C-alpha cells in the first residue's frame, strides 16, 4: 500500500501503523512525558526524528535523538519519551496496531486513575508503570 503523503499523518495497515506526530516543547529543566513509563510485552516500537530533539528512556538508558536519528525499543523493555527542548519535535512513530489501539484507548479514557490505567494497559498486553521515573 502506498500512502503519499500520509493521510491525516497516519498510515494504518492490518498489523502495522506509521504515524507522523509533533510534540510541543517543555519548560527548561522539566521532563514532560509524552507517554508514561510502560512496557509492551510482545510489541516493538520505534521513532524516527524528522525535526527537533526527542529523548527516549530505554530501560535505564536515555537516548537523545535528533533529526535523522532513529530509536528502537524492543518488546519487554521499560520506556517513556519526551521533548527535552522548548522547540517543537516532529517524528515518525512506528508501532503495531495493538500499540496504536492502546494509544487511542488512553486518549478516550474517562478514568485516568492509576488502577484504571493498569487495567487499560493490560487489555492491550502492556504494563503501565506511571509517570514517575522508576528508581
Could you please describe the fold and organization of this structure?
With 135 residues, the chain is α+β, with helices and mostly antiparallel strands. It has a domain at 7-97: Jelly Rolls, CATH 2.60.120. Helix content is 16%, strand content 44%. The protein has 2 helices and 10 strands, in the order E-E-E-E-E-E-E-E-E-H-H-E. The chain has helices spanning 97-108, 114-123, and strands at 10-12, 16-23, 33-40, 45-51, 53-58, 61-66, 70-73, 79-82, 89-96, 126-130. A 5-stranded antiparallel β-sheet has the order 1-2-9-4-7. A hairpin with a 3-residue loop joins strand 1 and strand 2 (16-23). The longest helix is centred in the last third of the chain and has 12 residues, at 97-108. The chain is globular and about 35 Å long.
Amino acid at each position: 500500500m502506498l500512502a503519499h503523503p500520509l493521510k491525516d499523518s497516519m498510515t494504518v495497515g492490518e498489523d502495522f501503523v506509521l504515524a507522523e506526530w509533533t510534540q510541543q516543547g517543555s519548560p527548561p529543566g522539566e521532563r514532560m512525558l509524552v507517554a508514561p513509563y510502560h512496557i509492551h510485552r510482545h510489541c516493538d516500537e520505534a521513532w524516527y526524528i524528522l525535526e527537533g530533539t526527542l529523548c527516549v528512556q530505554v530501560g535505564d538508558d536515555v537516548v537523545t535523538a535528533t533529526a535523522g536519528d532513529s530509536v528502537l525499543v524492543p518488546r519487554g523493555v521499560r520506556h517513556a519519551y519526551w521533548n527535552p527542548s522548548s522547540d517543537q519535535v516532529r517524528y515518525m512513530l512506528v508501532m503495531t496496531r495493538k500499540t496504536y489501539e492502546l494509544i487511542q484507548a488512553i486518549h478516550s479514557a474517562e478514568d485516568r486513575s492509576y488502577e484504571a490505567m493498569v487495567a487499560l494497559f493490560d487489555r492491550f498486553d502492556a504494563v503501565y508503570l506511571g509517570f514517575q521515573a522508576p528508581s
